[in-house]
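Internal ticket #5521
Category: modeling
Description: The requester needs a full-assembly model to guide mutagenesis choices. All entity lines are attached below as received. Residue total reported by intake: 276.
Assigned to: D.W.
Attached entities:
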Amino acid sequence: MQNGKKRSDCPVSCSLEIWGDKWSLLIIRDLMTAKQCTYSDFLRSPEGIATNILADRLKVLEENQIIRKLEHPENKSKVLYRLTRKGIDLLPIIIEINLWAEKYLSIPKDSKAMLRQVRKNKTEFIRSATKEMEELLH
Amino acid sequence: MQNGKKRSDCPVSCSLEIWGDKWSLLIIRDLMTAKQCTYSDFLRSPEGIATNILADRLKVLEENQIIRKLEHPENKSKVLYRLTRKGIDLLPIIIEINLWAEKYLSIPKDSKAMLRQVRKNKTEFIRSATKEMEELLH
DNA sequence: ACAAGCACTTGCAAAAGGCAAGAGCTCTAC
DNA sequence: GTAGAGCTCTTGCCTTTTGCAAGTGCTTGT
């Protein structure tokens, strides 16, 4: 998907070439809610990504500096994945997707609770959630 | 992609199942900038979507009521595609994608001009652009 | 009546996705 | 120190989706 030359200069098209597939934004969503995930955390997500696809997407996201790998503090055979600042800044997109979905699809209760916070003050919600995630960048 | 049962109840996942592929958001982008497009307008977009893929995506987007078909006023062999309100409401997502791309990718001059307007007052930009598109819903 | 334009469809090859099994590490228990 | 279990991927094989080229059927302009 992302190898080869880009289709156009359009910002939307270029963005989609990085994370515009069926899975990447779910990986990013997982990282936004959990702050950090191991490989098998991703595999446990309810959508059920296949392991080879996961490995591929993690590779692409890392190459594009959306996420980065770091070693697990207590187990050298585990790998931790975290968002970079570039990845963290995808939060507004994720939020707008949630808001759209809330309006037009049926969504679970816990998502609604989060969105109540968002609607109260979107800017502030994004600011504080971003700050929280950025603390892990150290 | 969208047939079969859904992967999960996650709002992001459900949304991606509708328009989360490499092409759908580009079709929506075209409709946001041009207000209405014919089939060959989409084919002329710089990304070069294949005609069978285009036909398939238009079908899925119409089934999900993101777009709708209407007949061309002056030529019965042409078909016009327009966004529904559900499609118009994807504008905030498109805007956030543009803002992210502006920050992290290199984007063309005309996109930057539009984004200057957005940054001046995002809420008002969305409000007025939405209103403009909604006028065509009649 | 003919050619050109338009919205698709079809057929076929290439690429991507999905599943199951396994490889190569590391840590734990004995 | 060796066996087993857990972890991150990789590999092979098959299915699905995508991409390309050509074609179909309708409409319109000349």
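Resolution: model delivered.
Comment from assignee: Strands of chain B lie at 67-71, 79-83.
Ticket closed.
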